[in-house]
Amino acid sequence: MNEYLTQEKPIYIQISEMIEQDILRGIILEEERVPSTNELAKLYSINPATAAKGVNMLVDKGIMYKKRGIGMFVSTGAKEMIKEKRKEEFFDNYIKRLLIEAESIGIGKEELINMIKRSI
What we know:
- The protein is mainly alpha-helical.
- It contains five helices and three strands.
- It has helices at residues 11-25, 37-44, 48-60, 78-104, 109-119; strands at 33-34, 64-67, 71-74.
- Helix 1 packs across helix 3 (48-60).
- The longest helix is centred in the C-terminal third of the chain and has 27 residues, at 78-104.
- The two termini are 32 Å apart.
């Protein structure tokens, strides 16, 4: 987790996304301890409550869980959960828009598929 925070999104969302990205990359493994909110706060010079909000987002999604007195850990199956969530977001944010735009300018599904195949 050595990425930089930006002004584009709320900090707690960026914290959540950075942890997710580290899980996807295999930097943080399933059943492995995640840096504490205080460690995250110190690393990014942010309020611990902000870091906690980002971590709690992942807990709410089942990606992480708390072991009382020990810390936060990555849930078994978290990597797959994140992949599925990102696939849905990719479809919603890119593919749906692409299909709508293609339809509006008269590109049929087969033509669109051929265009994609040619670009690969």
